[in-house]
Hints:
Blueprint: E1 2-5, H1 11-19, H2 24-27, H3 36-46, E2 51-57, E3 63-73, H4 76-79, E4 81-90, H5 99-114, E5 118-121, H6 128-136
Parallel strand pairs: 4-5
Antiparallel strand pairs: 1-2, 2-3, 3-4
Amino acid sequence: MTIRRAKQEDVPAIVQLLANDKLGRLREDYKTPLPDTYLKAFKNIDGDINQELVVVIDNNEMVIGTLQLSFIQYLTYQGGIRAQIEGVRVHENYRNKGIGKDLFEWAIGRAKEIGAHVVQLTTDKKRASTLNFYENLGFTASHEGMKLHLK
Length: 151
């Protein structure tokens, strides 16, 4: 298993992972050919020094996991850096094998390298088992998150 920065050719596999669950099917549009919006987004992410989209690759060079790590500079906490984890997925055939834990350990280590003082994430309240996974990694539900959908 290898964790590396995503390449453009990984985008279809990443979108397939994102779309392969109950909630993802409602918001993603995985098909061939992939809608251009995904490739445009990848180029924006890949060109931003504060964004790291990574994939987990198995021994057969198959994408089996992904997450996006964003570094947010702000003035609070004396000009601190906050690391935000988004879009975490592990292929259904590889779940419960420690890959998610390895991916999070990588992300936390990377956040420390950058000098972030906190790693944060959000999870949908409908994903109870995912919430439990995050709590077992040491994350705490310390704030109430809110959203305003603009579409």
